[in-house]
Amino acid sequence: MKAKTADKIATYVIVTLALLIVAVLAGLLGYILFRGVSHISWDFLTSAPRKIRVGGGIGPQLFNSLFLLVLTLLITVPLGIGAGIYMAEYARPGRITGFIRLVVEVLSSFPSIVVGLFGLLLIVNIFGLGFSLVSGALALTVFNLPLMVRITEQAFRSVPSQQKEAGFALGLSKWKIVTTVLFPVALPAIITGTILSAGRVFGEAAALMFTAGMSSPRLDFGNWNPLSPSSPLNPFRPAETLAVHIWKINSEGLAPDAVEIAAGASAVLVITVLIFNLVARYFGRLIYRKLTASRRMN
Amino acid sequence: MRVQNNETIRVQSSKSRVEKHHIEDLIGRSYMSLCVLLLIVSIVSMVYFVTSRGVSTFTIDKVGFSDFFFGTTWSPEGDHPSFGALPFIAGSFITTLLAALIASPLSICAALFMTEIVPGWGKKLLQPVIELLSGIPSVVYGFVGLSVIVPFLRNVFPGQGIGVAAGALVLSVMILPTITSVAVDALSALPRNLKESSFALGATRWQTIARVIIPTTLPAIMTGVVLGMARAFGEALAVQMVIGNAPFIPTSLFESASTLTSVITLGMGNTTMGSPHNNALWSMALVLMLMTFLFVFIVRMLEKRRSI
């Protein structure tokens, strides 16, 4: 009888605590969206922020975040996939492989602020790129690369080995097998993982404060010459991203409506991350079905 | 004659195919080697640069080792500058440990809920919750902490609301997903017959969980806890927003304090490169980096224990 009572109590405790986590998330999302969504308008999303007056927006910051994301993915995706394929298909167990695995592990658990400081020292100062989108993208590369390697490695490892053996039986070269047989099968998982990691990059701030900078020049959205300093497409201009902006107005915001702006910007950030999550799932399924002619939903 | 011709052509074509294979393989291999090399170069240069700047506090500015690690006075710009970093080191450890203490039981319960109590809809309910929690950016956690947790603590407890407790609470929510997902993986990898034999002996579900499941998976769960602590230790902005940033060792949970990351965040932009103040901040970054190595080392040790 006593054991049964203990069992019941334990079950209740576990269920309560698990539901508490659900409640925490519901409360968090509810609070962010409830506080923020009423502040989101087309004007808020497109206008520039104001330092000390009411009514500033987040237009340049939002653009910077998206542009930086694209730049980062352009660098990390090919590099991460290359290294990931190596880890999954070529690396033989041994000292060197063990070392590379350790590197990936250490790199992925580095605090993002240390990556930011490294970027400040090497990319901003020694390479002389200054506070710029390129510096930010390179710092995020250091931050994002181990993630991409892991995603690719897992995706390749989950491909059934018969596919590879069939390729060998046909007399294909290993690289041919990797690119034409294994890669299409692994692609859905890679794309899903990339979009999810993009969500993380989108919200990253600490690594960007010291590399992409904490200010944004006056942007002229009619100027599409990538070399002009006021052009939004210039990759060598400083760029404050949305996440950095939220941090800045929370710690030193002077505008009277700073709290509302922070709430609105947080809501935009969270909604964007939610969209990334949904798109990742949708795309993963879609491409999986397209490429493998399979009806399995996974 | 014709037959022979055909033969030579066939031999030639198979030869050129072999060569094509070799070239393909060579291109693929060199591309991959380049990618891997870049990974290694990035970490080697990172370790080199952070270390070389971090030790200059001790080599160039002649700050004593024990003055830095055990000194409690932080006044880098004073007439008699002193670089005691103990308050920040203590702040980092206190908030990290508190966050782990809050988050671990919650995460383990969530994992048990998903694998043992209601494996069907429990997983369907909690999996997206965990994914969303890990996707929310840290500045948003900081913002919510600042506008919900801090006022709440200010109203209920003594003090200003900002401080160690607020920092630990924010961090605990941030590391929940890390611990939970590792724990879920460990629990679902447990062989079924272990559980079944326990039930067959007449044990209740709780007895099975407490005496069989948890002890067997403990090293794996601890891996999750350590990974969560590594994340908490390195988290910068969310903590900085709610902890108050006072350079003192906190004596109560509701007192303002600082962590290594929060001091670096605030100080790095306002100091000139190469000044003693700046160098001291780099030394803290070095401490952060060494702690990361330590966490990775502990995780590896735990994983070794797991495989035996």
From TrEMBL, chain A:
Gene Ontology cellular component terms for the protein in this record: plasma membrane
ABC transmembrane type-1 domain: residues covered: 62-280
| Transmembrane feature ranges | 12-34, 66-87, 99-123, 129-149, 181-202, 261-280
Task: From the UniProt annotation, give the residues forming the signal peptide.
Answer: none
Write down a Pfam family by its short name. Answer: BPD_transp_1
GO molecular function, a single term: phosphate transmembrane transporter activity
User: What domain of life does the UniProt record list for this protein's source?
Assistant: Bacteria
CDD domains, per the entry? TM_PBP2
Classification via PROSITE patterns: ABC_TM1
Membrane topology, from the record: Multi-pass membrane protein
- Protein localization: Cell membrane
Q: Which UniProt keywords apply?
A: Cell membrane, Membrane, Transmembrane, Transmembrane helix, Transport
Broad class of where this protein is predominantly found = membrane
One of its GO biological process terms is: phosphate ion transmembrane transport
Q: Which PANTHER family match?
A: ABC TRANSPORTER PERMEASE PROTEIN YQGI-RELATED, PHOSPHATE TRANSPORT SYSTEM PERMEASE PROTEIN PSTA-RELATED
Report the family membership: Belongs to the binding-protein-dependent transport system permease family. CysTW subfamily.
Q: Which NCBIfam families match?
A: 3a0107s02c
**Name assigned to this protein:** Phosphate transport system permease protein PstA
State the species of origin: Paenibacillus durus ATCC 35681
Automatic annotation (TrEMBL), chain B:
Q: Which SUPFAM superfamilies match?
A: MetI-like
This chain's protein is named Phosphate transport system permease protein
**Location of the ABC transmembrane type-1 domain:** 89-299
Alphabetically list the UniProt keywords.
Answer: Cell membrane, Membrane, Phosphate transport, Transmembrane, Transmembrane helix, Transport
Task: Give the transmembrane region(s).
Answer: 30-50, 88-113, 125-150, 162-187, 208-230, 280-302
For membrane topology, the record states: Multi-pass membrane protein
One GO BP annotation is: phosphate ion transport
PROSITE patterns linked: ABC_TM1
What function does the entry list? Part of the binding-protein-dependent transport system for phosphate; probably responsible for the translocation of the substrate across the membrane.
Protein family according to the UniProt entry: Belongs to the binding-protein-dependent transport system permease family. CysTW subfamily.
What Pfam families does its record include? BPD_transp_1
Q: What is its main location?
A: membrane
Which Gene3D superfamilies does the annotation name? MetI-like (1.10.3720.10)
One GO cellular component assignment for this chain's record is:
plasma membrane
Name the Gene Ontology molecular function terms of this record: phosphate transmembrane transporter activity
Spell out the subcellular localization from the entry: Cell membrane
Do you know which InterPro entries this protein is assigned to? MetI-like (IPR000515), MetI-like_sf (IPR035906), Phosphate_PstC (IPR011864), Phosphate_Transport_Permease (IPR051124)
